[in-house]
C-alpha cells in the first residue's frame, strides 16, 4: 500500500474545473513533486490533499485511511502536515522559541499544564527544548537558533517555517513552493533541508514552480496543466516528455532544468 493515494480528485469552482480527475500515489520515503505552469491547479491540489478544501469528486487516502472530508487539524494529527507560503512566525521570538511554541501547541499536557509548573510540565518543557533544538540542527539552522526571527534572512525564515511544521511530527510533509523567491544559494540550502527531512524517514510532497530544483531533488514528478495530470515519472523521463515541454512553452522562466 502506498502512503498517499490520490484517486480521481476533482475540484470545481463554479464553472471552472481547477483540478480534473487527478490520480497518483506517493510511496513511503519518496520526495515527490507536483509541478505545472501558472494556474495549473497546484495550490488547489495541495489544499485538497491537506483537506483545507473538500473535493467535488474523488478522494485522498493516507496510510489506507480516507482523509477527504476530515478537518485539517485531524489530518495533521494523522501525520499529514503542510507548510504555508507565508508561515506564521512570531517575529519577536528566537528561532528556537518559535519551534518550542509550535511543539507546545500540540502538547498533551495542554497549555495550562505548561505554565502550572507541574513536574510533568517541566519534564515536557525540557524534552521540547531538546527536540526543537534537534530539529533546527538537522535542518542546518542550529547556528541561528538564538537569533530573533525578525533578524533572519529570507531563506532562513522559510527554513524556520519548515522547522515549525516538523514540530508537528509529520509522516508526510507537504511543502508549498519551498524554493519560491530564493536565490541559488538559498535554494541549495533549502534542497539540503528537504533531503535531510527525507533522510529521517519522512515522506515529502512538494508543489513547486522552480523546475530546476524539482528536477534535482525529486524521486517522482507529477505534472499538471489546466487541472489535469499530463505526465508522471522520474525526472529524466519528465524532462524529455513532449507533453510537458509543450505545456511549459511560452513560460519564459521555466526551462525544464536544461
Ligand atoms: N477559491 C477559488 N475560487 C475560484 N477559483 C479558484 C479558487 N482557487 C483557485 N481558483 C482557480 O483555479 C485555477 C487553479 O488555481 P491554482 O491556484 O490551484 O493554480 P496553481 O497551479 O497553484 O497556480 P500558481 O502556480 O500560479 O500558484 C485558477 O484558474 C484559479 O483562478
TrEMBL record:
Cleavable signal peptide: none
Organism: Amaricoccus solimangrovi
ABC transporter domain location: 4-251
Protein name: ABC transporter ATP-binding protein
CDD domains for this protein: ABC_Mj1267_LivG_branched
PANTHER family: AMINO ACID ABC TRANSPORTER ATP-BINDING PROTEIN, CONSERVED COMPONENT OF ABC TRANSPORTER FOR NATURAL AMINO ACIDS-RELATED
Short name of one Pfam family: ABC_tran
One term of GO molecular function: L-phenylalanine transmembrane transporter activity
GO CC, alphabetical: plasma membrane
Keywords: ATP-binding, Nucleotide-binding, Transport
Amino acid at each position: 500500500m502506498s502512503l498517499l493515494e490520490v484517486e480521481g480528485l476533482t475540484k470545481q469552482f463554479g464553472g471552472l474545473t481547477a483540478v480534473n480527475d487527478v490520480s497518483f500515489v506517493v510511496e513511503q520515503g519518496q520526495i515527490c513533486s507536483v509541478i505545472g505552469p501558472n494556474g495549473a491547479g497546484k495550490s488547489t491540489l495541495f489544499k485538497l490533499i491537506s483537506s483545507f478544501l473538500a473535493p467535488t469528486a474523488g478522494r485522498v487516502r493516507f496510510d489506507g485511511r480516507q482523509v477527504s472530508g476530515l478537518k485539517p487539524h485531524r489530518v495533521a494529527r494523522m501525520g499529514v502536515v503542510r507548510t504555508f507560503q507565508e508561515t506564521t512566525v512570531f517575529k519577536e521570538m528566537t528561532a528556537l522559541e518559535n519551534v518550542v511554541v509550535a511543539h507546545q501547541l500540540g502538547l498533551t499536557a495542554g497549555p495550562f499544564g505548561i505554565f502550572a509548573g507541574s513536574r510533568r510540565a517541566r519534564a515536557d518543557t525540557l524534552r521540547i527544548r531538546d527536540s526543537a533544538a534537534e530539529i533546527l540542527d538537522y535542518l542546518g539552522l542550529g547556528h541561528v537558533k538564538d537569533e530573533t526571527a525578525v533578524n533572519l534572512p529570507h531563506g532562513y525564515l522559510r527554513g524556520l517555517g519548515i522547522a515549525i511544521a516538523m514540530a508537528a511530527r509529520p509522516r508526510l510533509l507537504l511543502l508549498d513552493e519551498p524554493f519560491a523567491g530564493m536565490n541559488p544559494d538559498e535554494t541549495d540550502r533549502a534542497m539540503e533541508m528537504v533531503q535531510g527531512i527525507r533522510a529521517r524517514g519522512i515522506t515529502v510532497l512538494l508543489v513547486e514552480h522552480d523546475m530546476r530544483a524539482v528536477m534535482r531533488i525529486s524521486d517522482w514528478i507529477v505534472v499538471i496543466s489546466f487541472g489535469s495530470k499530463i505526465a508522471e515519472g522520474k525526472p529524466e523521463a519528465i524532462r524529455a516528455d513532449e507533453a510537458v515541454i509543450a505545456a511549459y512553452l511560452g513560460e519564459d522562466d521555466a526551462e525544464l532544468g536544461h
